[in-house]
Design brief:
The protein has 118 residues and is of the alpha+beta class. The chain is built from 2 helices and 7 strands.
Length: 118
């Protein structure tokens, strides 16, 4: 599930500001970063399964590994974790309405917090 037109896909932000806002809102820097890209995750563990809300971004300037990048954010998306294969993002996945609502509100909060700071 892709959350299009969230407003985040237009945001360009210094890496340190982004890290602070994401941590404040319960997101963690995912393990899938390199010197040009980073992904923040918000994990949902509910009886129906484990879901991840993800926010990817890429460096338009600087170096992610050196913590001095300027990050262009992209559309957030959600996937469901299956053991042992990993996370599926297909359009045929079912996402419980309560976590979709929470995700939308969380995305709005992150967008608002970032726009105040940049």
């Amino acid at each position: 599930m892709i959350f299009e037109n969230s407003g985040l896909e237009k945001v360009v932000v210094p890496q340190d500001v982004l890290q602070n806002v994401m941590n404040k809102n319960g997101w963690v820097l995912g393990g899938s970063w390199d010197y040009e890209r980073m992904t923040f995750d918000y994990k949902y563990e509910i009886p129906e399964g484990i879901y991840y809300l993800r926010l990817p971004g890429y460096a338009v300037d600087g170096d992610v590994g050196a913590n001095n990048a300027t990050i262009q954010l992209m559309d957030p998306y959600m996937g469901k974790h299956y053991f042992p294969t990993g996370i599926e993002y297909g359009s045929d996945e079912h996402f419980p309405e309560r976590i979709v609502e929470h995700a939308v509100n969380n995305i709005r909060k992150v967008t608002k917090d970032l726009k105040v700071l940049i």
